[in-house]
Each structure stands twice: as structure tokens, then as C-alpha cells.
Design goal:
By secondary structure, the protein is α+β, with helices and mostly antiparallel strands. The protein contains four helices and eleven strands, in the order E-E-E-H-E-E-E-H-E-E-H-E-E-E-H. The chain folds into two domains: 31-46 and 128-205, Gyrase A, domain 2, CATH 3.30.1360.120; 47-125, Heterotetrameric sarcosine oxidase (Alpha-Beta Plaits), CATH 3.30.70. The N and C termini lie far apart (53 Å). InterPro entries: SoxG, TrmE/GcvT-like.
Length: 205
């Protein structure tokens, strides 16, 4: 890897001593999976998260993003994927980049090397959890949880929205006909997990 650009924050500059720490997901204290029959839910392994902000109309910015992450900027209320990387649209000038945690830093460096214009990129790896709901009854759990209309006509496969979830907030995306994903900040992970367990309980009897 080339020298670190001045714009990249290097937090841990002290050589590690002793046994390496094992990364833990926000829900490491739970079973991290549940469900039966037509409904299953689980927490994904730790995910890398880069919060990207920039001007989608800037051709050089868009090209640098595509060259770095392997996929173009996602358009309104959608997400795109390329191998292990996903770009989720959050607002007209904000996207979330999901990637393996051990690749987040390298991807950040690559984008900064490719594009020197006006943009912002923050590495929030470890600050979020991903909970996947699968099965024909998954949509029923979401109907109890969010005010957004999850009918196929309003929430097709490939869509992503930021919405109220219970008494907090989350990002929800539809991966497949019966596959959904909830992305929530680490501090709300336990609340959302317990909410999902409760909302799913009637479909596991």
C-alpha cells in the first residue's frame, strides 16, 4: 500500500502488545440467530462501513467511486452490489458503503488517492449491525415494526429506505422476494434484536 494520505485518520498508532483482540459484533451476547418454519433471522458478521458524501453530478467523483468499489453510485432509494461490496443510497449526497471490515481502510485510501475533489468519507466500521430476515413471514415482522409500506408495489427488491423502527431508526433494504435486511446503529442493536424476537414469536409456534 502506498503512503497514507494526510486526509486519512490513523487512530491506532501504538504497536499492539499481547494477544490480539477478537472483533465482536454488537449482538455477540445473544444467540445471533432465531426463527423456525417460514421465518428466520440472524445477525451478520462484523461489517465494514464507510459513510460517503459527495456530488453525484460530479463525473470525476462518480468515476472514482466506481473504480474503487467496483460499482457505480446507487440511485435514489436503491442499492448496488459488486462481489463483497454494497453501496446504499441514503440521501441525494450520501451513501453507505458496506464491505468486509478488513478492506474498509484500504478502500478509503484508494478513493482518496483517486479523487482529490470535494467529498467526505468516514470509516464507521464496528458502529453498525446487520440483521437479516428471511422467509415468507419476514414481511409480517416488518409490518409490525416500520410505518413504510412494504407491499411489493412500493418496496420492490433492490430498494432501501431509512425509516422509523419501533421507537428508534434503522435502514431497511430488500435483498430478495423473501429476504430483507435491517441496518441499525450499534447502540440500538440490542433494542432492535429484542423487538424482532418479540415480533417474530407468533410465527414460530
Amino acid at each position: 500500500m502506498s503512503e497514507v494520505p494526510d486526509s486519512v485518520a490513523v487512530i491506532d498508532q501504538i504497536p499492539q502488545q499481547g494477544e490480539p483482540l477478537t472483533p465482536r459484533t454488537p449482538l455477540h451476547h445473544t444467540a445471533r440467530a432465531g426463527g423456525a418454519g417460514q421465518l428466520h433471522y440472524r445477525e451478520h458478521d462484523l461489517t465494514g462501513l464507510l459513510v460517503l458524501r459527495g456530488n453525484a453530478a460530479d463525473k470525476a467523483f462518480a468515476e472514482a467511486v466506481k473504480a474503487t468499489f467496483g460499482c457505480p453510485l446507487a440511485k435514489t432509494l436503491s442499492f448496488v452490489m459488486a462481489q463483497e461490496v454494497s453501496l446504499l443510497w441514503l440521501s441525494p449526497d450520501e451513501w453507505w458503503v458496506l464491505c468486509p471490515p478488513d478492506q474498509a481502510y484500504a478502500l478509503e485510501v484508494q478513493l482518496r488517492e483517486r479523487y482529490s475533489g470535494h467529498f467526505a468519507l468516514a470509516n464507521n466500521t464496528g458502529g453498525m449491525t446487520r440483521i437479516q430476515l428471511s422467509g415468507p413471514q419476514a414481511v409480517q415482522v416488518l409490518k409490525k415494526s416500520i410505518p413504510y409500506d412494504v407491499h411489493d408495489a412500493h418496496f420492490p427488491v433492490g430498494k432501501v429506505v431509512a425509516t422509523v423502527f419501533g421507537k428508534t431508526q434503522a435502514v431497511v433494504r430488500r435483498l430478495g422476494q423473501n429476504d430483507w435486511e435491517i441496518l441499525a446503529r450499534r447502540s440500538f442493536a440490542d433494542y432492535i434484536w429484542r423487538w424482532v424476537e418479540d415480533a417474530a414469536s407468533e410465527y414460530q409456534r
